[in-house]
Amino acid sequence: MTGSPARRPSAARKGRASAASPPADREPPRTPRGVRTREQLIQAARRVFEREGYLDARLADITTEAGTAAGSFYTYFSGKEEIFAAVLTEVQDEMLHPQLRDLAGNDDPVAVIEASNRAYLESFKRNARLMALLEQVSTIDERFRQLRHLRTQAFGRRNARAIQALQLRGLADPELDPELTAAALSYMVSRTAYASYVLGEDYDLDQLVETLTRVWVNALRLPTSSG
Predict the structure, then answer these.
(1) CATH code for 9-90?
(2) How far, in Å, are 17, 82, 136 from residue 22 at the CA level?
(3) pLDDT per residue over 28-67, tens digit each?
(4) The domain 93-220 belongs to what CATH superfamily?
């Protein structure tokens, strides 16, 4: 504890931070200056979290990094939990779980799966440190575990709809359960990305995309041009 004002929220403020699910329900700033200051705090928080880790990051470090007064932090955020949620919100949703876009009738499903896997892996690589932090925080904070779970479910439902559409077109194995299949394949991609870009496994991106796409295609029993 440093005694900085940024580290001494009131008891009521701390209570609200503990009770709310991230991100907290708060009106956005109304002035251009307020919008800029909030964005500066979010970008500074990301740098501090990635440099120091979630547990060791201090609010004083964030305000110093942002070049803002310590007391102004609470105009925009209730505490470390809320600004971390805001950092996550800044990241594209596609980064948080592999996602198939809705398939039109004339789309090549193999090409769509390949493009989706590549986009996800490239985004995960750019945001690997943040993904590692989300993994860490989810094990110690139930609210972030729930946030992560809800987003995973949302992506799973969308992937399940894509698989079901392929089944209706007579392209995917009709005996597969779309939701369970989507969950299994999506987790395969996300955990492989975690192993590669967080744990340091040395996988070539093109080889990763090709292999993961082949597993998707084989699991769904999709027809391919070669077969």
Answers:
(1) 1.10.10.60
(2) 9, 6, 16
(3) 788 999 999 999 999 999 999 999 999 999 999 999 999 9
(4) Tetracycline Repressor, domain 2 (1.10.357.10)
